[in-house]
Amino acid sequence: MKSKTGFTLLETAILVTFFALLTTLLVVQKFNLDAMNRDNIRKTAINAMYYSLENDFYLKNNYYPESISAQNLSSVAPELFTDPSGNPLGDGKSDYYYQPANCEQGRCKEYTLSARLEKEGTYEKTNKSR
């Protein structure tokens, strides 16, 4: 009797399907991890801006600015004012938002600082109650 070696067509189809599913799962997981990493970058940037506003700018000036940038928040690395997509804060396409409130002559009493996240809701920081 002759012995056959190798895989049948059915075994090969099952193996190809298994590897296709495994590859799909790995690609989806990679995209999820990349999005979570970008969200962490956004949170880090918002936290840096927030602590600079509270611990540097407000303590020196006793008010919040009408707009923020690397010029008036010098303790924040300039690249943090640009979101992971390359859009600077203040640009309509940016994931970062600074909204001052109760302003008179460029001096504000309140603000909201936020970032639009991919995997979670909006990440938001507001001025400390004083």
Could you describe the 3D structure shown?
The protein has one domain. It is of the alpha+beta class. It is built from one helix and four strands; from the N terminus they run αββββ. The mean pLDDT is 92. Strands 1, 2, 3 and 4 form a four-stranded antiparallel sheet that branches. A hairpin with a 2-residue loop joins strand 2 and strand 3. The radius of gyration is 25 Å and the shape is rod-shaped.
Helix content: 40-55%
Task: Note poorly predicted spans.
Answer: none
Determine Rg (CA atoms, Å). 25 Å
Strand content: 15-25%
Number of folding domains?
1
Structural class: alpha+beta
Record the SSE blueprint.
Blueprint: H1 9-61, E1 64-65, E2 96-104, E3 107-115, E4 123-126
Antiparallel strand pairs: 1-3, 2-3, 3-4
Short description:
This protein has one helix at 9-61, and strands spanning 64-65, 96-104, 107-115, 123-126. With 130 residues, it is an alpha+beta fold. The chain starts with 8 loop residues before the first helix and ends with a strand.
List keywords for this structure.
130 residues, alpha+beta, four-stranded antiparallel β-sheet, 4 strands
